[in-house]
Write a structure and sequence with these properties.
mainly alpha; 3 helices
């Protein structure tokens, strides 16, 4: 079997709906886990920019910060990734160290 055939076979096994659900779940998990750190970073960035610009862009910064916070909250509300066992029909798309990869 040629490399091209193997690639076509691997592409045929991809389930885009499952992949998107996994990515959404992972994004939600990250937002829940690190949302507080992001808020702290936004506070520091806003304070630094306000200091450097003498508050000239305070309204724009407040608006941008509110939009980012709202977006993070929406992502954090996403349901967790579906728990499906890895098998031949549903390959695991996450990166793994070379020693864990199945033989070609």
């Amino acid at each position: 079997m040629s490399l091209n055939d193997k690639l076509k076979q691997a592409i045929d096994q991809i389930d885009p709906d499952r992949l998107v659900a996994e990515l959404k779940g992972a994004a939600g998990e990250l937002a829940r886990e690190h949302g507080g750190r992001l808020e702290e970073a936004l506070d520091k960035i806003g304070a630094t920019v306000d200091e450097k610009t003498q508050g000239k862009y305070a309204d724009q910064l407040a608006s941008a910060r509110a939009k980012v916070s709202e977006s993070v909250a929406k992502v954090a509300d996403l349901p967790p990734a579906p728990a499906t066992p890895p098998d031949a029909e549903h390959p695991d798309y996450r990166r793994r160290p070379p020693e864990e990869l199945p033989p070609a």
